[in-house]
Amino acid sequence: MLASPAAAQTYAPAPAGQQPRVMMCELTDQSGTGWVPDFLMVTRQIAGLHTGRIEVYDPILQQLVRRPVQAVITADTRDSRSYGWALAGVRNQSGQFAQRLDYRLTVRKSDGTAQMVVTAQGYDNQMRGQGRCMSPSE
Questions:
Q1: Cα 43–Cα 45–Cα 49 angle in degrees, nearest 5
Q2: Which residues are within 8 A (CB) of 78 and not within 5 positions of it... i.e. 6 or more apart?
Q3: Where are the domains of the chain?
Q4: Is the dihedral of CA 39, 58, 111, 113 positive or negative?
Q5: Whole-prediction pTM value?
Q6: pLDDT higher than threshold 80 for residue 69
Q7: Residue 63: what are its φ and ψ, rounded to 5°?
Q8: Which residues of 21-44 are buried (b: 16+ CB within 10 A; e: fewer)?
């Protein structure tokens, strides 16, 4: 899924008992570029029209697209699960422009250890972050 700052959509609250599953992550931006968020929320709808839909939201998305964006599971092994999403035509607080940013978040199932890799289209380097993800009930 690709999100751009021009896209806008509204969401109605989920009915009681049909609230999405939530995972929150705290990350450290090891790249220092501002493209790796320090906090990230991943939700999965468990009922209703969008059952199974996964969305992510973080301070970067809040500033640039003002809404959650859809993510997909890119890998699911016995040990970890990876999520992916992308942004198009964005500029960070330092003024750096990216035609496309591909985000990949990998979370270890045993302890919630998380790794994030952000790749800007047309560039060889990757921006990395690491931290931990957990559900609010943990």
A1: 145
A2: 109
A3: 21-127
A4: negative
A5: 0.81
A6: yes
A7: -75, -40
A8: eebbbebebeeebbbbbeebbbbb
Residue 50 reports pLDDT greater than 90: no
Interacting residues of 99 by C-beta distance below 8 A, sequence separation 6+: 88, 89, 120, 121, 122
pLDDT digits (tens, 9 = 90+) for 16-43: 455 568 999 999 999 988 889 999 999 9
- In the three-class reduction of DSSP (H, G, I as helix; E, B as strand; rest coil), residue 28 is classed as strand
Which residues share a beta bridge with 54?
Answer: 44, 71
At which residue do the structure tokens 């989920």 appear?
Answer: 14
CA angle (58 as vertex; 87, 107 as ends), nearest 5: 90
**Is residue 6 within 8 Å of 87, Cβ to Cβ?**
no
- Say yes or no to pLDDT of 4 above 70: no
Cα dist from 34 to 3, 10, 97, whole Å: 18, 27, 12
